Automatic annotation (TrEMBL), chain A:
Location(s) in or outside the cell: Cell membrane
GO CC terms of this entry: plasma membrane
Official protein name in the record: Carbohydrate ABC transporter membrane protein 2, CUT1 family
Stretches with biased composition (Basic and acidic residues): 11-24
Entry keyword Transmembrane: yes
TrEMBL record, chain B:
Pfam families, sorted: BPD_transp_1
InterPro entries assigned: MetI-like (IPR000515), MetI-like_sf (IPR035906)
Domain ABC transmembrane type-1 stretches: 91-301
Bilayer-spanning residue ranges: 33-58, 89-115, 127-150, 170-195, 237-259, 279-302
Membrane topology: Multi-pass membrane protein
Sequence segments annotated as region (Disordered): 1-20
Family per record: Belongs to the binding-protein-dependent transport system permease family.
Predominant subcellular localization, coarse grouping: membrane
Organism for this UniProt entry: Actinacidiphila rubida
Gene3D superfamilies documented for this protein: MetI-like
Official protein name in the record: Carbohydrate ABC transporter membrane protein 1, CUT1 family
């Protein structure tokens, strides 16, 4: 375009050349920089995308193998095959009972514990919080062998409620920590009013504090549920009967019980099992206002 | 009761002597009541097993015939350090942690977070969506996806074939590298989110001032960006390491610790000893060592956060 511009314009451009040139040089450098950055990021995204693409494509492929390829033929057969009580419904239901029960237990206890920790001063508070934070760092995998031995002795092994109790308790330290941080953000003024009106502290918690911190409570609940839904080793160690296993463990059957692995069905099942996670995560980051806010919150 | 639940009693300092010692103790007890369910659960199901762990580690407990459990002192530990399989597991755990968490997730996460700042908006949201989805998928699903990716007939070799690069059976020749890369795929999002938040907090004026003073890209990164986010780096490294130390499902599904024991990190070694060979006592001793390493990192993490509690 610049080539066909009029001589007059050309002359003016010549005069202001140094300033303009520097500005355009800077602008074009910015633009090339952005291009390069975009290109690098897109390549990394593609690498990250390959396994996800396999999941999506293989699930609707009638002849799926380990390659990422266009479905041939496109079919929902894989889904039809896995959507029955043995493969999908029962494990998903078991997962819901297990994770739902443990989440409820954990969140109720965490809210109760967070209230005094957030509202009162006490000399036990700091050591307690430090212990809680310390516990969040411990590798729970390491405790599983003694938990197993303990559960065998007290007859809790292979029971749903036993597993719920352990799942809920092991998630408690982090849930208390997170809930307390969210509760700290609720101003005291309204509670003081409720107190003067003679409300007890549990009433205040239920009527004043919880309604004000529902976004935080949603995040704690979803986060706790998600970490349990994806948890493999706790049910793997503590549950033995096949009809009690949640989806995170029953998925192993795709390999052991049949000689050849049907990758299409494996992909379809994985998709069904993962779908709630992606949805709940989207809800959670919406509540928090962007995913980077989640990073900040999780950091503590 | 009104004295017990006085408005804002915790935040407004009360003049000393308004309450007698017994009244104050009672007040602390009543206020602490809601903490009790959590404390009971954590004592029973977390502190209990840890105490058990310490006890079992010094016994020869087995899964079969629990009545013959004896106290054996430090036998399990001497046995472990004399066992080449245990030393192998320690080395592999170190490799796995350094490769996947300290180098992989941490550096890639920072790199992505830094680049995303100067990327265009659609690219930025594409990157974060894809990386975050890899992170939120359940562990077992992630493990199967990467198993498919690294298999001999998998997509990685197909890509290498197109690029005319040498192919190999990754899960057989380099199993620990394959599971480490799998952990990078799965865990980078966390570092990316932490660093994105940290980079946003650096005031733009500081970077601009350095740019005007003629500091190049690398100088700015080294002298300004990194020192300003060093707390986040510390926190992130610590959390990543703790998380990576306890990875079990990912490796179990991808390689079962094999071939042989060439990807058998400590959690898998512990599992094999305790359940396959039913040596609960010995497996617990390994667990205790793992727990102690975790505790050490956890204390370091607390010191980093010290001012924030």
């Amino acid at each position: 375009m610049a080539v066909v511009s009029s001589p007059k314009l050309q002359a003016r451009r010549e005069r202001s050349r140094p300033v303009q040139e520097r500005a355009t040089a800077k602008r074009s450098r910015r633009r090339t920089e952005q291009l390069v950055v975009n290109a690098i990021l897109l390549v990394i995204t593609l690498v990250f995308l390959v396994p996800l693409a396999w999941l999506l494509l293989a699930s609707v492929n009638g002849t799926a193998d380990l390659r990422v390829r266009m479905p041939d033929p496109v079919t929902f057969d894989n889904f039809h095959r896995v959507l029955n009580s043995d493969i999908t419904y029962r494990p998903i239901l078991n997962g819901l009972i297990l994770c739902g029960g443990a989440t409820a237990l954990c969140v109720v206890c965490a809210v109760l514990a967070a209230y005094p920790l957030s509202r009162y001063e006490s000399r036990y508070k700091r050591p307690f919080l430090l212990t809680i934070l310390f516990t969040t760092g411990l590798p729970i995998t390491a405790v599983m062998v003694p938990v197993y031995a303990m559960y065998v002795q007290v007859n809790l092994i292979d029971t749903m409620y036993g597993t719920i109790l352990f799942l809920g308790s092991s998630a408690l330290p982090f849930a208390i920590w997170l809930t307390k941080n969210f509760m700290d953000g609720v101003p005291l003024v309204l509670e003081e009013a409720a107190w003067t009106d003679g409300a007890s502290s549990l009433q205040t918690l239920r009527r004043v504090v919880l309604p004000l911190m529902w976004p935080g409570l949603t995040v704690v609940t979803i986060f706790t549920f998600l970490s349990m839904w994806g948890n493999f080793f706790v049910p793997f160690f503590l549950l033995l009967s096949p009809d009690q296993l949640p989806a995170s463990v029953s998925i192993l059957n795709f390999f052991s019980s049949r000689g050849t692995v049907d990758y299409g069905q494996l992909a379809a099942f994985s998709l069904l099992y993962s779908a709630p996670v992606v949805v709940l995560y989207a809800v959670m980051s919406k509540v928090l206002g962007g995913s980077s806010a989640l990073g900040g919150a999780l950091k503590g | 009761m009104t004295a017990t639940y006085g408005p804002g009693a915790g935040t407004v300092p009360r003049p000393p002597g308004t309450l007698s010692t017994t009244a104050r103790t009672r007040r602390t007890l009543v206020r602490g009541l809601p903490v009790v369910p959590s404390v009971v659960l954590m004592l029973l199901f977390l502190a209990g097993p840890i105490a058990y762990c310490v006890y079992y580690a010094f016994t020869d407990m087995r899964l079969t015939g629990a009545s013959t459990t004896h106290f054996v002192g430090f036998d399990n530990f001497t046995k472990a350090f004399g066992d080449s399989n245990f030393r192998n597991a320690v080395m592999l755990t170190l490799m796995f942690t350094v490769l996947s968490s300290i180098i992989g997730q941490n550096v890639l996460g920072l790199f992505l977070a830094a680049l995303m700042r100067s990327a265009s908006r659609p690219v930025r949201s594409a990157v974060s969506t894809v990386v975050v989805i890899s992170w939120v998928l359940p562990e077992v699903v992630a493990a199967y996806l990467l198993y498919a990716f690294f298999r001999r007939e998998g997509e990685l070799n197909a890509i290498l074939h197109v690029l005319h690069l040498p192919q190999q059976n990754w899960l057989f020749t380099l199993p620990i590298v394959a599971v480490s890369l799998a952990n990078v795929w799965r865990g980078t999002a966390f570092s990316m989110l932490v660093y994105s938040a940290a980079l946003q907090e650096i005031p733009a004026e500081i970077t601009e001032a350095a740019e005007v003073d003629g500091a190049g890209r690398w100088k700015r990164l080294w002298h300004i960006t990194l020192p300003m986010i060093r707390r986040s780096i510390g926190t992130n490294l610590m959390l990543n390491t703790l998380q990576t130390l306890s990875v079990f499902g990912l490796i179990f599904v991808m390689t079962r610790g094999g071939p042989g024991n060439r990807s058998e990190t400590l959690p898998l070694y512990m599992y094999e000893q305790a359940f396959q060979d039913s040596l609960i006592g010995y497996g617990t001793a390994v667990a205790l060592m793992l727990l102690m390493v975790g505790a050490l990192f956890s204390v370091l993490y607390l010191r980093l956060l010290r001012t924030e509690v």
